[in-house]
Structures are given as C-alpha cells and as structure tokens.
Design a protein that fits this description.
The protein is an alpha/beta fold and 535 residues long. The chain has 11 helices and 18 strands.
C-alpha cells in the first residue's frame, strides 16, 4: 500500500490507516466518524462502546521544541483551540523543568535519572553515533509493561539506534512507528549526519516496529503519528488491560513544513517563520483533539491520565517563542529549561481544573509519578532498577499539596574538571548557573555546550534584547522576584552562591559521551535506511 498524505485531513488519513493497524497491533480497529468540537470537547458517538479496565490509562504527548509561549493557553498570539481547552480542564505546571535539548530530556523521562549520570547530558544522540540510553536502565515503558499495560510508541525516539537492543520495541514498547533520529523531514523522513570529513550522509528514517516503513512513501509526520495513535485507541480493548501511549511528535521541530488547509488562524501572524510555526501548531492541535475524541469514543477518557509536555525550550530562529523567559533551547536559562506542560487526570477536584501548580517538578519525576502514583507499582518491586533521581509528585499534582522536592539539577556537564559546560541547579527560589551559559560572550567555540544560541530575551518579530556580558562564569537569580533572569545577584550574595555551589558539588562528575560518527552506519549499506549496524 502506498500512502500519500500531504494536506490530507487527520480523519481521512485515519480511514486509510485502519487496515494497516492489524499489522501494528494485531487487532481490528474502527473507523473515525468525525471531528470533536474544540470548544466543548463533544465528539460524535460510536456504534461500538468499550469500557475501561480498573487501571488508569496513561497518554503522554511530547511536543518537540515547544517554547514557553507557543500555545494559545500560554498567551501565544494565535489559538490552538483543542489544546487550549484541555489546558483549561487540567492542572498547568508552572514550576516544571526539562533538559535544554532533546536526547537528555528523553533520557530523563524514560529512565527517571538525571542524564549526566549516564553520560548523556551534553550531546544529542543522532544517527550514526554509537551511544544511547544504557541497556541496564529500566525504562518507563518497561515498568508499565511489567505492571500490565499495553505499551505503544509513535514518533521520535532519539535514545540510540546503533544496536537493535537500543530501539523502542526492545525497550518496553510492544509497538513503534516513528524515527530513531533527533530530526527528519516531515514529509519524506529523510535525515542526515555529518561523517568524519564533514560530508553529509543521508538516508530515510521511518520504522514500522523494526521494519523499514517502505509502504509509507510520503506522509506528513504529525498527521501520520496522530492517526496511528487514534487507531491504536480504537483497536485497544480497555476491558483487558490499561493503555500506555507515548506520542512523541516530531513537530514543532524544524524544518518548518506544514500541509495546506490549516492557515486560517495564522494569517496575521508575523514574521514568516512564526506564521509557518503557527500552521504546524494547528495541525498538531487537530491531532490532539482527535486523540481525545477517540478516547471519549472508547469510553476511556474519564479513566485516562493525559500528560502534555515539551521536551525542551523553543528555538527562536525557527519561529518559536519563550518570551518573556530568558534564553533558548540549548541554554540553561529559563527559556531553555522551564517546560510548558499540563496534566489532566480522573476524578480531578473542581478547584484544580484550570489551576496552575507551583509544585517544583522535573522530567525525571514522571517515572515514579506514573509508575507509583498512577499504576500503583512500588519502584522497589522493579528488578534491576538503577538509582533514581525522580520523586513521586502524584499527591502534589492531584491534591495540590507541596512538592516532595525543593531542588532540581538542571544540568551538570563538567569539562576538564571545571563546570565549563553548563552546570545549573535550582534550590527553592534560587538558581545558580556555572560555566558557559551566556552565549553572547565572545569568543565561544562553536561546539561549546549551549554555544551560539540566543541567551537574551527573544520574541517573534523583534530584535533579541541582549544581556550584559558576564565574564565571571557565575549567575545567581532569585526566581520568585525575577523569573525573567534579568538581575544577576552572584556578586551581591556570595553566601548564597557558596551554598548553591556546595549543593552542586555533591553530585558526581561523570564523563559525558559523544563518540564520533561510525561510517559503517551509512544507509547505503542498508537499502537507504538508517539501521542498527552493530548487531
């Protein structure tokens, strides 16, 4: 079967995908019968109702490069109506942190560990580089599968692909359709890597479980992954076991590409990059609405924990906005690591709907929060589980109680026995940054972690407001009084700096991985597809 989906609606694509879902999950699905209303959330009825098991379903939607101010609910200059409505029905996380780039964030999410512990804090794991999330790590999918969940993943993996054992269907997911690399073309799924001589090595990166998705010749990534998620819901028997779905969209990562037919809410948005970004967000919004509709149609929505989160801050040069926060993806300023997220869960207290949780939280906390708090499985019962950094935030999220944590390590990347690669930590209201975090300083080596990226205050259509240069390699901010990080207090409050440095010193210094490109991975050796090459 050949699939072409440029500019095709999600519902139409889903009808095409119904047949192939048999291959993916081995059971028959139902056709989509229309769109949900974005304002009310009402969805067309189905002729076949399914009833949820007693276990709560978990649906996690991860958006790539979603900035602090990129959705309607976060004051973007355009609406994303389905997502905006869901945010109003959910608990928004206002003190929630992620890593500054994608692979470290996904490692934190899947392992419950700060990525520096496994040497993953510095580099993005791109195809052709032989490293990834260590195989001894129990993943979130492993844990939920052991707890009796049906586990399915769609979209971006980005946690290693040099051996098959590092790929999703051998890391706890029963099925996977998506790509291994950090980025792909949204239509062709072509991607590239630099070889040892600076030449581009190109190949296609789209898998159906472990097989190359040769029958999907051209499909827009957001619509493809959204449709498959919908069909998985419609095919799942919620009476038998709860569902864990990990929908890791390639959007809103560059390249800025979007199908026609979604421009109406974006016509007045400027500049052009922001306008295209807005269109991509509209497609994304439709897929979220359809996924909600499928869960409602299966009578499973009211028994589903729905998590919506970014992986890192937005990329200003590609139409994203973190304003008014300072910084950008690849920096440890708030614009790079303060995450846009919300959670909706069953039996939510009325006063929590539409509220903002001030509980301090980090990506690593999803592991214990979902495994212990939602699935009801003690981490102590999981064999071979490595030391965890995450804490169970379920009571804080569902009852509005204080966070169990007062401290978050935002990054730790020592180089040459000095914190020159972005070390950052938050304790209560204080935040300390040590190292090359201020990208306006010159000179900066091009490969400096976080280097060559905006570290001031950027918003679409305006020139970046540059920060004052800081040659001290120290930044101290009081985030309660100064969430935009305008006032560096390091010189004024040396005792606080010393206290924060002491907290940093308690974490071990671990060499960070970044092996060179392996020419044996060249897709020309594997019929043009990026394929694990070390097995």
């Amino acid at each position: 079967m050949e699939m072409v989906a440029a500019g095709v609606s999600l519902a139409a694509m889903a009808l095409v995908l119904c047949g192939v879902m048999l291959t993916l999950i081995g059971t028959e699905g139902n056709d989509i019968e229309g769109h949900c209303d974005p304002e009310s959330g009402q969805c067309p009825p189905s002729s076949q109702k399914k009833y949820s098991s007693t276990g709560k379903n978990i649906v996690m939607v991860v958006i790539d490069d979603l900035g602090w101010n990129d959705m309607g609910f976060s004051d973007a200059e355009y609406e994303t109506p389905h997502i905006d409505r869901l945010a109003k029905e959910s608990v928004r996380l206002s003190q929630y942190y992620v890593q500054a780039v994608c692979s470290p964030s996904r490692a934190a999410l899947m392992s419950g560990r700060y990525p520096f512990r496994d040497g993953l804090a510095r580099h993005v794991i791109t195809n052709g580089h032989p490293f990834g999330l260590p195989l001894e790590q129990v993943t979130l999918a492993d844990a939920l599968q052991q707890a009796g969940y049906a586990t399915h993943a769609f979209g971006k993996w980005d946690l290693g692909m040099h051996t098959w054992s590092h790929t999703p269907t051998l890391r706890g997911f029963a099925s996977f359709v998506g790509h291994y690399n950090a980025f792909v073309d949204h239509y062709t799924f072509q991607t590239f890597a630099d070889d040892l001589h600076g030449e581009l090595i190109t190949g296609r990166d789209l898998r159906w479980n472990t097989e190359p998705a040769v029958n999907i010749t051209k499909a827009y990534s957001t619509l493809l992954f959204g449709s498959l998620a919908v069909e998985t819901v419609r095919a799942h028997d919620f009476r038998e076991k709860p569902l864990f779905m990990y929908l890791a969209h390639t959007a809103l990562h560059s390249p800025l590409e979007a199908p026609e037919g979604y421009e109406s809410r974006c016509e007045t948005v400027t500049p052009a990059s922001r306008r295209k970004f807005c269109v991509m967000a509209q497609v994304l919004d439709e897929t979220v609405g359809e996924l909600e509709g499928a869960l409602r149609d299966a009578n499973a929505w009211d028994n589903t924990v729905f998590v919506f989160t970014t992986d890192n801050g937005g990329q200003a040069s590609e139409g994203s906005s973190n304003y008014p926060l300072r910084g950008n993806k690849r920096t440890v300023f708030e614009g790079g690591v303060r995450g846009s997220a919300f959670i909706r869960f069953p039996e939510m207290l009325p006063e929590l709907k539409g509220s903002q949780s001030t509980a301090l939280m980090h990506l690593v906390d999803w592991f214990p929060t979902l495994v212990e708090g939602v699935a009801g499985v003690s981490l102590a019962s999981l064999p071979k589980l490595q030391e965890q950094d995450g804490v169970n935030c379920w009571p804080a999220l569902t009852a509005g109680s204080p966070s169990p944590r007062t401290e978050v390590l935002l990054n730790l990347d020592p180089a040459d026995d000095a914190f020159m690669g972005q070390a950052a930590i938050r304790f209560e209201n204080w935040k300390l940054i040590v190292g090359l975090a201020n990208c306006s300083m010159e000179p900066l080596p091009k490969d400096a972690p976080g280097g060559q990226c905006p570290s001031g205050w950027s918003r679409p259509g305006h020139a970046e407001v540059l920060p004052v240069e800081n040659a001290s390699f120290l930044w101290l901010f009081d985030l309660d009084a100064d969430p935009e990080e305008m006032n560096n207090l390091a010189e004024e409050l040396p005792d606080i700096v010393a206290m924060m440095q002491e907290k940093l010193s308690k974490y071990p210094r671990v060499p960070q991985l970044g092996p060179e490109f392996d020419m044996r991975s060249d897709p020309k050796n594997f019929d043009g597809y990026w394929t694990p090459w070390l097995d």
